[in-house]
Design goal:
Length: 386
Amino acid sequence: MKRGQTGRYEVSTTSGEEVRAFVPAALPPVPPLDLASLQGPMERAHLALGRLDALSTLLPDPRLFLYAYVRKEAVLSSQIEGTQSSLSDLLLFEMNEAPGVPLDDVLEVSNYVAALEHGLQRLREGLPLSSRLIREIHGRLLARGRGADKAPGEFRRSQNWIGGARPGMARFVPPPPHAVLDCMSDLERFLHSVPADLPTLIRAGLAHVQFETIHPFLDGNGRVGRLLITFLLCHESILREPLLYLSLYFKQHREDYYALLDGVRRDGDWEAWLTFFLEGVAQTAAGAVLTAQRLTTLFQEDQLRIQGEGRAAGSALRVHQILKERPITSLPSVTSHTGLSFPAASSGMQVLEGLGVVRELTGKRRNRLFAYDQYVSILSEGTELG
């Protein structure tokens, strides 16, 4: 449904240029959404989410999948913003090993993991999904590295713009700084309201567009906006664990994504955006379920192969367990986490190397690193650079 423009323009001056800054109208949309047209996409999305949520009770150890999946999302969401860091780079960085990319890139990804984990912890503590929590998340996101000078945790006090080398060439200009606080207060009221006719998934889709339109920070808006979707689903108990991340879907459909956001602002076509969003939820949830099933099968098959090694299997199984928790590791880390002696850990790792379960990464005799190759490969799908 095309409602017409969903906000008003104000003339704002930035970098010596006058621009027309867009101030969105408060949610929910007026006239109301045509929910009947969204019924099919809604049912598919809810069905896929139900299967995804069941993972948290069906997986032998959901923590393993959550640890890895959160890191995949961190890499993808940061890549959308232009970083060149891979999943392996992040895992190496978390071991205090030097990654083969600029430090700022992998710092951004590591910050994203910290921001996500902080936000979820605060929600568990009872802090509502609010402007305060959004600012806290942003503060963690820009705590170190690139962007640390862009007012972490503070709403912007200057005009920003999206696309174009200068304001006058921008693809989109968000609200002027004096309007940001009111816009975010309106969004917070919408997040706290529970309209009987607006399911949580619909509210998540609406809130994401509104946040991206307000663009309340000098940097990091895209990453916070994508996190907002997952936080809302967890806050409303649609998901028990934070297992839904749309960054890969948005990355694969980047042009459609931006065109649909523009369509909401220009024409008020919320239904077109929500159809796209719900399809993304369904595809992403189904993909996460498939990935979890593939990893579970991999772990079980490799465990059976290791058990076939007879007396050597004992230490190898303990090393295998650590690799499921940290798919890139070192022998000192294995000894620290398993209590095995260094010779026993080394012997266990040798068994895994012989079976092709792990691959040594450095080619050195000392300070060696080992990767659970197929695990990293499955998890890295979609994060490939280039």
